[in-house]
Write a sequence for this structure.
């Protein structure tokens, strides 16, 4: 474990630490350098918006941070764990415990109720029975969907589906919530609702990395990182890491969320 | 993830496209029920053949003159005289010092006559023989008295009648014992009634009249007539081959020839039985093999559908992997689904197979072989595992990043 444990003490170590990461794809004979020596550190509690045009490498970055892909070169520490040293089984565990995904196209399991979708990461993590149900209920309550438990995705609006996805992302109490253009398929009202929800999550101490190409959506974050051609060209902080997110509005649903976070971190 | 959760997901998966799942199970269902029914038909027909041969008696040897068997070199002129089965042959075979393994030998003259009683007529096969014939050919006397050696010696016009002859000639409730019937133009007296014996192949063994062979010679076939066959009963079914050799040696000596040139055919019932058994077991294997192919095709159907399912649900697999499903859980999920389909097909196939085996098929009453149920059901599960593994492994090996990108 000495190899894969970060030298800095757990409380202070960053959630994400990328050092000179290179990612090279081969599309047939052609070599594509999606990331060219990118370095990025994200502290605990930060809310980072990653922006860039398509082809800038932001999807590749997202895949690497989400442990869906591994860097060709360079190092990546996620919450103190050196991801390069992990085998497939361990990567699955890391994705389950440390990362919560929110996708542009919601990516809920079709024909499966909201509650079952939210329970799924817990089931894969080995949480059983009543505890699992209670945590899933609490997560759905925190996104304001207590009345949609038994609805399947096709019976819900895009905004509702994305809120279920957020509940699923946070139910395992991960170190990092990774949102890949979460508002890309939503109308303005639903987009605002989702962003308010993410702001509130960040206010409770959760680290969020948001990928977007909309400036308005990025303005919810504390820090904006711009990519071009596989490297960071601009890294701008609007708000301190330990300050509340810039566009936080008070709203319902915060209570149970904090409660859930406290319960699962003490258990 | 506990297996029960995963099983629930698998059930949901199979349930999400009911028609397709039903059609997939149908393939396995047909395979399994075909195995059960066809093996049952094979077993049933082999039982039927065995029963017919058992009814002939397994410790008997039949000596037929070639003309009756319709095989061998054609016999003409003086040779035909030599080829006849005579009383001398009977005496030779019944000599215990020459044939120690022979229990009894019964000369048989068979013919067919019209039997008449008070205006009722029927055509019956008339067998002229000795009392030992009854034991050798498994006839028992149900009512009245049996034939005796004295009847043979006295050339008594006494007959035993079979159940079919009884019902054809006599009205229900009439006591046939002591009544006189006409066979051809001769009068015989009924002394006993034979118990029912059923059919042997195409022959109705109850449509029979048994009389002393001496009386048959006198009245029906002519005094000089030779025997159509000799029915030899061995002491034990185990030494029947030995008995047959003894009989052949005696006949060869009597006719002054070698066993190879013997103008008679010696039919050993035990050989007949084992030949029939091996024929019918070949039939069963053949039927089973045809059915097994349909089970295999059903299995390939499962694999085909699972491959389609995996392709169709690539994105779902990506999502599951992204939220932390390990490879083995995905593998198990799709394997469960495949096994579930084949298991349902197998169970339904067993039910259909059992129902189907209750009906007579082409005159054969199928006999369900328990091993065929276990085999077919076991194979259907194995088919699910075997043919489900490749698609499941393909699903489990998908890279989440590719799976998520899949449209």
């Amino acid at each position: 474990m000495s190899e894969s444990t970060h030298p800095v003490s757990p409380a202070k170590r960053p959630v994400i630490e990328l050092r000179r990461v290179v990612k090279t794809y081969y599309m047939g004979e052609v070599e594509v350098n999606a990331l060219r020596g990118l370095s990025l550190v994200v502290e605990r509690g930060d809310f980072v918006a990653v922006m860039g045009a398509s082809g800038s490498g932001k999807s590749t970055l997202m895949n690497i941070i989400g442990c869906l892909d591994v860097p060709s070169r360079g190092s990546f520490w996620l919450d103190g764990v050196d991801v390069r040293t992990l085998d497939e089984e361990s990567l699955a565990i890391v994705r389950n415990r440390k990362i919560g995904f929110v996708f542009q196209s919601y990516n809920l399991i079709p024909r499966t109720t909201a509650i079952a979708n939210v329970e799924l990461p817990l089931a894969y993590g080995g949480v059983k029975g009543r505890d699992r149900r209670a945590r899933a209920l609490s997560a759905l309550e925190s996104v304001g969907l207590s009345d949609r438990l038994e609805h399947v995705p096709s019976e819900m609006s895009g905004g509702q589906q994305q809120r279920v996805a957020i509940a699923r992302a946070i139910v395992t109490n991960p170190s990092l919530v990774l949102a890949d253009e979460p508002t890309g398929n939503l109308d303005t009202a639903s987009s605002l609702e989702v962003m308010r929800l993410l702001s509130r999550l960040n206010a409770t101490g959760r680290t969020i990395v948001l990928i977007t190409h909309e400036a308005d959506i990025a303005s919810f974050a504390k820090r904006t990182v711009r990519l071009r051609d596989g490297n960071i060209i601009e890294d701008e902080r609007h708000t301190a890491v330990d300050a509340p997110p810039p566009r936080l509005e008070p709203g319902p649903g915060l209570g149970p969320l904090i409660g859930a976070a406290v319960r699962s971190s003490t258990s | 993830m506990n297996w029960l959760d995963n099983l629930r997901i698998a059930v949901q998966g199979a349930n999400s496209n009911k028609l397709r799942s039903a059609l997939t199970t149908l393939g396995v269902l047909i395979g399994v029920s075909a195995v059960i029914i066809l093996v049952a038909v094979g077993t049933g027909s082999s039982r039927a053949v065995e029963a017919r041969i058992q009814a002939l008696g397994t410790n008997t040897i039949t000596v037929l003159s070639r003309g009756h068997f319709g095989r061998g070199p054609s016999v003409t002129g003086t040779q035909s005289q030599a080829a006849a089965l005579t009383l001398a042959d009977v005496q030779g075979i019944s000599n215990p010092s020459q044939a120690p393994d022979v229990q009894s030998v019964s000369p048989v003259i068979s013919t067919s006559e019209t039997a008449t009683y008070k205006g009722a007529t029927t055509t019956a096969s008339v067998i002229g023989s000795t009392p030992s014939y009854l034991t050798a050919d498994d006839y028992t006397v149900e009512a009245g008295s049996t034939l005796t050696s004295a009847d043979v010696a006295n050339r008594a016009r006494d007959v035993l009648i079979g159940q079919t002859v009884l019902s054809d000639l006599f009205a229900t409730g009439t006591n046939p014992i002591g009544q006189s019937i006409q066979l051809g133009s001769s009068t015989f007296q009924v002394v006993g009634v034979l118990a029912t014996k059923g059919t042997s192949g195409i022959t109705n063994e109850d449509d029979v009249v048994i009389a002393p062979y001496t009386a048959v010679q006198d009245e029906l076939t002519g005094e000089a007539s030779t025997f159509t066959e000799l029915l030899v009963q061995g002491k034990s079914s185990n030494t029947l081959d030995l008995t047959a050799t003894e009989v052949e040696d005696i006949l060869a000596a009597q006719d002054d020839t070698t066993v190879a040139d013997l103008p008679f055919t010696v039919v050993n019932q035990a050989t007949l039985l084992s030949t029939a058994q091996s024929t019918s077991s070949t039939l069963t294997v053949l039927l089973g093999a045809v059915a097994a192919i349909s089970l295999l095709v059903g299995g390939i159907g499962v694999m085909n559908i699972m491959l389609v399912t995996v392709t169709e649900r690539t994105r779902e697999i990506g999502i599951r992997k992204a939220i932390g499903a390990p490879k083995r859980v995905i593998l198990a999920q799709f394997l469960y689904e495949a096994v579930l389909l084949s298991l349902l097909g197998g169970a339904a196939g067993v039910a259909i197979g059992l129902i189907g085996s209750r009906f007579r098929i082409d005159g054969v009453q199928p006999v369900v072989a328990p091993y065929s149920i276990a085999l077919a059901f076991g194979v259907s599960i194995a088919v699910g595992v075997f043919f489900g593994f490749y698609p499941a492994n393909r699903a489990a090996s998908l890279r989440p990043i590719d799976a998520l990108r899949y449209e």
